[in-house]
Amino acid sequence: MKYLFLLLLSMNVYAEDIKLLRVIDADTFIVSAPFLPPPLKPQMPLRLSTVDTPNINRWAKCDRENKLGQSAKSFVEKLIKTSKTNSVKIVGVDKYGRWLGHVYLNGKSLSDILVEKKMARYYYGGKKLSWCN
Fold it and tell me: Which contiguous run of DSSP H or E holds residue 25?
């Protein structure tokens, strides 16, 4: 599996055959990975690179964060359902083994859309700002 990630990173994967299957929260998805060999499941978690959105459910640090996160998740689900095209560009792997990437809906960056709507903040590492204030 480690070598597959290295191969994908070296190719800087940009594939329209990687489909968004499920929204976990506004910056985390389950995506199809049809090129993974059996017995690997042809799905992988993907986290948006360079943004942070509010967490939901048990990962939220307060009720405000959970409400913001649920709203952002619903917004993303609607955007995906109504977009004519979507594509994913894989750019790395995070410390939890999720792919890091960019999602484009109708050619526009989902990360940029979320930041414009104040449902995300750009994040490049370090301490994250609280969504509870």
Answer: strand 20-25
